[in-house]
Structure formats: structure tokens, C-alpha cells
Amino acid sequence: MIPSPPLPPADKPPVRPRCETAVLFLVFNRPDATAQVLNRLMVAGVHRLYVAADGARPGHPTDEALCAQVRAVVMQITARWNCEVHTLFRVNNLGCSVAVSESINWFFAHETEGIIVEDDCLPAPDFIPFCTELLARYRHDTRVMHIGGNHFGPDAGSALGPKTDSYYFSQQVHTWGWATWRRAWQHYDLHLHALPTLAAHGRLRGSFSSQLESQYFLRKFWDLYHGPRPFTTWDYQWHFARAAHAGLTIMPSVNLVTNIGFGHEEATHTQDATDPHAALPTGQLHWPLRHPSRVLNDRPRDRQQFRAFLGGRLRAKLRGLLRPARPTAPAGAAPSSPVIVEPASR
Fold first, then answer.
1. pTM, rounded to two decimals
2. Where is this region: Disordered (predicted)?
């Protein structure tokens, strides 16, 4: 393992905006991506950070060193920025589904609302203040369960004008940078126990924008319900919680988070570097935010987004069939040293 470069002592705390909203940062074995995203969170003014890390996987010889380096990077950067940090560093590997869902449970055992960011999800400058304002605005509106940071339309990287709504209401869930409340997360069930009863009474069909979307997600839910254990995903269960309670989500009118993890050899679900969602550009909101006049699902936009998503999935499958096998890095390859951003002096 190559040690991270030493950091000089900080004489004065950094000058930066102050964000009082708590953030959960989910990390694992990618030091470079971890440093890049964490630096961005620090610059955004995050002062209260929860960091959860799964343990090294058996049979993966580089995991021990990489996981240790990730945790060292987290402690170095947060100390450099005088950030309050709470950690859940696991010794054993729980796997993606259990590690992530239990980390969010841990987060909401201490906080009533907050922002969740994974180590490959790089937020734009507007993401943290966007989530912070809307967490407060819809704190007691139980119709709204989720605030997303993604917009996958052709205008993802645009700059909004002052007369355009900053976001819209949806029934779709994106989790590459998002926020929610304890009141909503309490409905999460990793094992989808309520699925048979809800499906038998037809209570899930109206929770999607079209019959096609309903069929797609119901099939995913049933596959999980009857599928092998342990699960390899946690996010479809959050889709189910939203659908089971007919919840609304918030989608920004431009993209506020880009996924920098595509093509990484250790990626779980984002191996294809040519995916159209890889390194998607981020846009700019106009401040102050312009709020929709009604809390109402935009079904036409949901239908359009789902058709685009389905087309993208089909094209990705075709690329996967045509793509040659990807070479793997040597087992003894040493991890590189991440870049650590210094805070500005007073």
C-alpha cells in the first residue's frame, strides 16, 4: 500500500459556506473517487458528515489495502476541513444491499433528514443547497418521499432561466445523490414483505406513469422477492417503498450529480464506460429556486423519461453482447495516492 501524502497542520479553519444538513457518505474501496467526491462536499460547506464503509471482501486481495486507504483519506480530509465526522467502518463485508441499507438505517437513527451520496457520485455546486432547501420546504409533507439529484434528459447540462421551475414532481427514483427524511425511510423494507398483499389488491399499478413502467417494476420487485439471497441491490427496495405508499419524488430540472464510477474494474452495476449516463454533464439552477405551483406528479414527463431509460437499457445490453472481455488489473497492483484539496485560508 502506498501511503497518502502527509498534510500540513491547519493554522486557521477554512473559509467556506456552512451547510447544517447532515450528509451520509457511502464509501468502499476507491480512494481516488472518494477523495474527489469528499473534497467537493467539503467545498460545499458540509459540516456534519456520517461515513459508512463496508469491510473488505474475502477473495479480493487488493481490498484490504484499498479499504484502509479510503478510510485514511476520509479522516485526513475531514480533519483538514474541521468537519464533524461520525464513522461506521465495518470489519466484515456485508455486501452492497445490506451494507448500504443498514448504513442508511444508522444515519436516520441519529438524524431526522439528510443527504446521501456514494463515493462515485460527484455533486455539482447546486446539489447540496438544492437538497437543503427542499428538505426544509417539504419536511412535513408526507406526500413527498424523495429528493433526487439526477436529470437524464437532453437538457441535463443546461443553465435554467429565471422563469423555469427548478424541479418537478415525479414517481421515479434516482439514487446517484439524493435526500430524504426519517419519516419516509421508515417505510423501507429490504425483503419487500408487503409485496404479495399490495399486488393482490392492485395497489401498486397506479404508482407508475404507464402500464409499461408498472410491468417493468413489478417484475423487478417479484424477481427480488423470489430471488436468491443475499440481495445484490438495495435501491429497487426503495423504489418499492415509494410505490407502496404512492409517494412523490422531486426531480431537478437540470442534472446536479454525475456518476464518475462507470468503467471502474471494481464497479458493481456501472461497468460500461460507454453508457450514456457515464460522466453525464451537470447544469446550473437559477437562484432563488422557482417552485412548481402544485404538488402533482408530471406523468407525461415520467413517461418520456421511462421510455428513454428503457431504450438506454436495451442499447447497453447490445453493447455488452458485442464488447470483448475486459482485461483485469494484476492482483498485486498498488493503489495510487488520491488528490487532497486544501481549504482556502482566511
1. 0.86
2. 323-346
